[in-house]
Amino acid sequence: MKRNAKVSTAVIRRLPRYYRQLSELQETGVVRISSGALGKSMGLTASQIRQDLFCFGEFGQQGYGYKVDSLKEEIGEILGISRGHTLIVLGTGNLGRAIIQNFRFSANGFALLAAFDVDPVVVGSRIAGVPVRHVNGLEDFIAAHRVDVGLLTVPMAAAQQMGDRLMDAGVKGIWNFTNYELVCARPDVVLESVHFSDSLLTLSYLISQREDMEENP
Amino acid sequence: MKRNAKVSTAVIRRLPRYYRQLSELQETGVVRISSGALGKSMGLTASQIRQDLFCFGEFGQQGYGYKVDSLKEEIGEILGISRGHTLIVLGTGNLGRAIIQNFRFSANGFALLAAFDVDPVVVGSRIAGVPVRHVNGLEDFIAAHRVDVGLLTVPMAAAQQMGDRLMDAGVKGIWNFTNYELVCARPDVVLESVHFSDSLLTLSYLISQREDMEENP
DNA sequence: TAGATTGTTAATCGATTAACAATC
DNA sequence: TAGATTGTTAATCGATTAACAATC
Predict the structure, then answer these.
(1) CA A73, CA A71: separation in Å to the nearest integer?
(2) In this complex, do A208 and B109 lie within 8 Å of one another by their Cβ atoms?
(3) pLDDT at B2 over 50
(4) Where are the domains of chain B?
(5) What is the rounded distance in angstroms from the CA atom of residue B10 to the CA atom of residue A159?
(6) Cβ–Cβ under 8 Å, residues B198 and A164
(7) Which of B99, B175, B201 best probes binding to A when mutated, by most A CB atoms within 10 angstroms?
(8) For residue A89, how many other CB atoms are within 10 A of its CB?
(9) What gap in Å lies between CA B79 and CA B74, rounded to an integer?
(10) Does B166 touch chain A (CB under 8 A)?
(11) Does A20 contact B85 at a Cβ distance shorter than 8 Å?
(12) Which range has the worst mean pLDDT, A4-8, A210-214, B68-72, B85-89?
């Protein structure tokens, strides 16, 4: 790795896309790829890709391009996939349960240690092998284990309170799936939110534009 | 509305956030807000907010600010919330089921008409009141009803095929929750993807940066 | 070698910020 | 009225694109 100084969020947000695209190329059996071809497959320019990678070092060979395997590996390293990150899930409602059962945490370098809930019916059980504990024991658990991230799938009304407890207990990041705009005062905690409704409303806007265009062409 | 000519995606992505923030202010009983205060609560500058709104018209009053109610209403209108959009869900696995049961479609101006699956066990049943039909009848259903959006929660391997069927059947947009990078050749169809792993990997990167900083301060 | 493609600097473009007259 | 805050244009900043020497 090279300069790294102040990588823009635009670049950071593209890194996972590169990683995903390279994984798909790898599965398809593609061994090498040029910045031009990679860009075309992702809707980016060759320049942009070379500029993005330039933030982190030199990963290609002149006249040849990039080896899919090793570029994927390098980007995975940059993303911290091999750092052994851990997380816990707060809230085992439909969404929490779905994520626990479906999401390939290990493919993203995360180990899911436990889930937490208040419902006595689920506390003590396991979901896809993951033990469900009572939220009362949250702080003790975090103190006893290294927990990097807390995933929030609690009801909106409980989001801020649970987020605060996670931050106070010392997690490094919060992955927020509630539709609540979490307030995070601590500069040492990273907040990443997945807002389904933001996504759907964006789609709604774009569709509405098309509808208008069809009316007044 | 005023000029509207070429609104950048950066602005479009902020519109749902404005809408969400204004909704929260409304619930808190806030009646008026200035661009400065709204910006502060969202981590934006006053200038940026005024510039964003300027794309669509004049919604405030000099010396006063914006009425929370009416600004929310206006932005909702821009987003197309009152257009009576409709959607169907493809795939009633854990994630599809969770979204059907939890997501407030109507709060975002969408009506969920039906879900589709191949599993004979669920076909014919209802999930949260939504009828589950067999995928074989997909095209007939879309031909018979107005379906604006197809939500994809099918297995990754089926994503492209189902996406193509939706596009061929004439939906205006696809809301993709699979981790597959859908290829959308049609310029008249809008593609919006929610990639959980992109989000987690971004978080992973940012956490890793903090970890490095703590090692070499 | 010749052709291809990178790494990297410079030029362009677009988005954000600043400024301020208009006006509530 | 005086103070506040908008709408809107101009200035700045940052991200994307272009260009090209280096080199595989």
Answers:
(1) 5
(2) no
(3) no
(4) 9-78, 84-197
(5) 27
(6) no
(7) B201
(8) 29
(9) 9
(10) no
(11) no
(12) A4-8
CB contact at 8 A, A12 and B206: yes
Contacts of A16 in chain B (CB under 8 A): 195, 197-199, 201-202
- Nearest residue to A111 via CA among A133, A130, A124, A134: A130
Out of 3.40.640.10, 1.10.3720.10, 3.40.50.720, 3.30.200.20, the CATH code matching A84-197 is 3.40.50.720
Residue of A13, A102, A210 with shortest CB distance to B172:
A210
Burial class (CB in 10 A: 0-12, 13-18, 19+), B6: exposed
Fold of B9-78: Arc Repressor Mutant, subunit A (1.10.10)
Residue B31 touches partner A, C-beta closer than 8 Å: no
Of these ranges, A180-184, B195-199, B213-217, the one predicted with the greatest mean pLDDT is: B195-199
Q: Which helix (H) or strand (E) holds B13?
A: helix B9-28
Q: How far apart (Å, rounded) are the C-alpha atoms in residues A182 and A116?
A: 19
One-letter amino acid for residue A10 of the chain: A
Torsion over CA: B74, B76, B78, B83 (sign): negative
Cβ partners under 8 Å of residue A44, min gap 6: A14, A38
- Whole-prediction pTM value? 0.95
Answer for the pair B207, B191: CB distance below 8 angstroms, yes or no. no
